[in-house]
Amino acid sequence: MKKTLTVLAVIIVVGLIAVGTWRWVNDEGVIPGQEPGEPGGPAATGPVQPDWCPDVEVIAAPGTWESSPTDDPANPSFNPNSFLLTVTRPLQDRYPADRVKVWTLPYTAQFRNINADHEMTYDESRNEGTSTLENELRITHGDCPLTDFIMTGFSQGAVIVGDVASEIGQGYGAVPAERVRGVALIADGRREPGVGQAAGNPVSGVGAEISLELLNPAVQLVTPGATMRGPRDGGFGVLDDRTFQVCAPNDHICDAPLGVGNAVERAQGLIENNGVHAQYATNPNVFPGSTTTQWLIGWISGLVDRAPAPVQAPESGVVDSVPPVP
């Protein structure tokens, strides 16, 4: 009888050890002496980043009459004089494609007015550009969850990028805010003093959409289908410290006067390609001793150079976790 009890006790002890070992392996995820990811061991956890994904995607949104929905986002040619080409081309030359993907927003960048009644309205053009940009963000993030984004836009493109950044910063945008390394808005028509970070020489006015918000009926006489929406509700949320506003003094798109004035004359100014608005690539009065082009290239390059490169596991296809954007 004693032998039987002894055998039963040994069986019970061995069984308890086996169960404990099984729970240890499954709870802790590792067996002593075995590294994660080794055959027989658990795989590392976290999102998967295919090896073809770029570390950073730079998105550029051109201004009115600088883009087309059929343009090639990787090699845009619709308007060879597009301001942002002075920025994106040097970036493409500087970085390999697996480090930086440069994508230029293709959209119908038009602005129907009394001089161009055949064109798409500003509202329709802006909505199309916004939808196309958000779709690109969602697709890239879905395929490459560890890729970070840097976004910049000029004029109408700045309004589009600013609107998208506002939604992302408030938590209901196309991608998580932690995946956005920075935003630069050049001549933003919804620029509001104190919202975002001012870069370059200071200006005293506001964006045209804020300046003309209360004058929408008069604006429609000159630019039908161009709704002046005022400031962005909620600003840029958590992206406020990563969003930079650049505006040339006396550029009536981003440095317009407040208060009621000659609404028709001010609305007409929206469709005129004045010298200040057209010279960001060379204007020395925005960044003393430099240009907006040079500032953008330096700013974007700094963000890219500080961006971590997701580490690809050699065989498992699983990446290590990447620190959040600072």
From TrEMBL:
Keywords: Disulfide bond, Hydrolase, Serine esterase. The keyword Isomerase does not apply. Signal peptide: none annotated. SMART domains: Cutinase. It comes from the Bacteria. Pfam families: Cutinase. Belongs to the cutinase family. PANTHER family: CUTINASE 4, CUTINASE RV1984C-RELATED-RELATED. This is Cutinase family protein.
